Amino acid sequence: MIDILLELKDVNYKYKNNLILNKINLQINYGEKIALMGKSGAGKTTLISILNGTINPTKGRAKFFGREFDKLNFDQKSKISTIWQDLRLIEDLSCEQNVNCGLLGKESFLFALKNLLNISSFNKAHNYMQICNLEKSIYSKNIRKISGGQKQRVAIARSLIQESDILLADEPFNNLDPKLTSKIKNLLLISKNKNKIRVPHTILISLHRLDLLDGFNRVIGMKNGKILFDLEKNKLKNFHLNKIY
Amino acid sequence: MNKLKLNPSSITFLPILVCIPLAYELLINFHIGGIELFKEFIISALIPKINNEIIITLIKRLNETIFIAFSSWLVSIIFGIIFGILSSDISYKFLSLPIFLKRFIKLLLIITRSIHEIIWGLILMQIYGINFSIGIVAICIPYIAINAKVFSEQIENINLKTIQSIKQINGFKFSSLITLFWSPVIKTLKNFGLYRLECAIRSTAVLGLFGIGGIGTSIFLSFQTLNFRELWTYLWGLAFLIIISKAIFKKINLFNTPKKFLFNFVIVLFCISLFSLCFFVYFIFNKNIIPFNSINNLLILNSNFNSYDFLKLFLETILLSLFSSGVAVSFPPFFILIFNNKIGILIIRSISFLFRLIPPPIIILVLLMFNDPSISLAALTLGLHNAAITSKLLLVNLYTQDKNEYIAMQSLGVAKRTSWLFGLFVKQARSYLAYCAYRSDIIIRETAILGVIGSIGLGWQLQESLSSFAWDEVIIILFAYSSIAIIGELINGKIKSNLT
Fold it and tell me: What mean pLDDT is reported for chain B?
């Protein structure tokens, strides 16, 4: 098994002449639970977009499972799943159809067609929706017609159903009340695979709230596009946090 | 002095100025020779002829119309979706297809939709003779291109972030593509596709006037024999068909249909697309095309066109398009503003329904009862027919929107018309103008119908050239038509993008 799953070397990212990421060096290893911290605009979302291959670095190298993103095969690409900050669900599809979209990398074209026609099996989707605390009554509801918190959980279920090796989550606890936040956090960080549910063993979550740091084993702090600290959770001190906030 | 500032509301009313040259020419050409006939035509609307023979013919003709309209609608929708997907940028980003293919398809679609179905019908009739297939193919050619444009525009509107998120799941390309396209395609099918059926029924009726069959043929034959009561029986029959088809499709909710039905529906669509593809291939290669045996002549342009006359016809066509667009844009808001009460609106609705129902060639033939052929008469006809369509949309949007400003103005004691203008119309002016820009594209293409009937512009010359099998002339006229339509589409596209 490859220990280093994702690796960035001297990565810069420029957007309209603004340097968003500046000389980022980062390795994500198998089994790590990483909290990515920093103020809004620190470059967390851009870093996640580079880590999942959505955007290419302007300078430097990004490697995924030891290869460049373009050279990965389908199977390897689908080992990375993402929960986006703005969720990016497909409007006009129901919750269960949206969750089933997470299976597009594993299932055939016929499955995609059946999903859109609403005649596919939703058992697997229902399992993941249930574990994300979604009420049965909203399974077949249009995504437009549910609340922000419910949408958030649909997005989480969609990325979990991918059964990927690494999960990148951009502020996944937005819109969730404290009780649900704790439940979902436990699901992502503590749960072992059970009840036909598989949770990725390697997780990187961008966060704002310090009270949610329990359960992580590594913390990365970002400010103005740079990584200011990257250390084990138990070595994190207040002055580290003061640097980034 | 303050500068005159134009905003969407004032721009909407400005084209009413076309009435000055129109009224001048119409008054000069006015005569009372056909007043009696006109009176008879109007009265016949209230007492259509009803007997066994007429009813049997009506049903037979309606069946033919349904067959042609529904077949051409279904085929044009299916292939419209396929070409819409193939001409949208997103497909090429996803499937890594060569970009020249997109450019080629787009060019092909621009050219095919720039020529009106009537022209396609007339050309195909000259080549293959008269039969039902001609009607279906003639409607399908431009309709596929028009539908493809609309579907492609909607697909291009898919949020870039949604595309990224689906891409990131790393599903199979076709699975991801169909998942992304599903919602915009179904939505467009619901909002626009069903409206196209109404258009297909109207186009079938107009093609019928040229002998394709269906209700249009009966309408034209009744008109030729001045049998107005019979004519109105067919027109009311056509109205019934349009209303019924709308009502049926309104009931179909594609998002809430039973699962089994939806699955069967997709299988039926697949079979029809396969069948229609075979039909097209059969149609092209298995028909007698003797009149077209001088295909080499297409490449040798030895026409006797007088360039001055040709330029005159060309300019007449442009002028006809401009005048008609002026009428279509300005008449609805102007008349709704003037007759702004319940009865007034009811009358406007009824008149616009009639102008939508009666095919433009029949409208111009009726108007010719008391006016000589002229650009103004053709422009008025085309303008009124299209104003009837724009007014329908305007009325729906005006009275389904939020009326808070209107109510507030009324409560302040502002006059009814002023409150309507500033409380209701101002909010719709921009989208109304954008729709009118799209409508102007159609008006440019429709000048062909009026040209053929009303001896105006390139349409008339086309009829002449087709009748004499002068294919080289036909090619020149088609090129001219296509150029006007494409330039018009580009200008209207710019206007539309500035407004939305």
Answer: 84
Contact check, Cβ <8 Å, A74/B170: yes
Structure tokens at B300: 């040798």
- B256 and chain A in contact, CB less than 8 A: no
Nearest to A119 among B165, B169, B263 (CB): B263
Domains in chain B with CATH codes? 8-44+297-499 (1.10.3720.10), 52-290 (1.10.3720.10)
* Confidence category of residue B256, pLDDT binned at 50, 70, 90: low
B187 touching A (Cβ < 8 Å) = yes
Alpha-carbon gap, residue A159 to A72, rounded angstroms = 19
- Taking CA atoms, B458 is separated from B71, B322, B437, in Å, by 30, 15, 22
Within 13 Å, how many C-alpha atoms sit on residue A142's CB side?
7
Task: Categorize the per-residue pLDDT at B347 as very low, low, confident or very high, splitting at 50, 70 and 90.
Answer: very high
pLDDT in tens, B284-316: 666 555 444 454 554 455 556 677 777 888 888
Measured CA to CA in angstroms, residue B170 lies from A28, A81, A82, B212 at distances of 20, 9, 11, 51
Chain A residue with CA closest to B167: the answer is A54
B71 Cβ contact partners less than 8 Å away, ≥ 6 residues apart: B136
pLDDT, tens only, B69-116: 988 998 899 899 999 999 998 888 777 788 888 889 999 999 898 888
Q: What CA–CA distances, in Å, run from B359 to A176, B238, B316, B377?
A: 59, 10, 22, 15
Instruction: Report the b/e string of B428-455 with b at 16+ CB within 10 A.
Output: bbbebbbbbbbbbbbbbbbbbbbbbbbb
Task: Identify residues of A whose CB sits under 8 angstroms from chain B CBs.
Answer: 52-54, 74, 77-78, 80-82, 84, 86, 88-93, 101-105, 107-109, 111-113, 115-119, 162
Tell me how crowded residue A10 is: count the other CB atoms within 10 A of its CB.
Answer: 12
Q: Check: CB of residue B75 under 8 Å from CB of residue B140.
A: yes
* Residue B496 Cα, gap to closest chain A Cα (Å): 26
* pLDDT of B404 over the 60 cut: yes
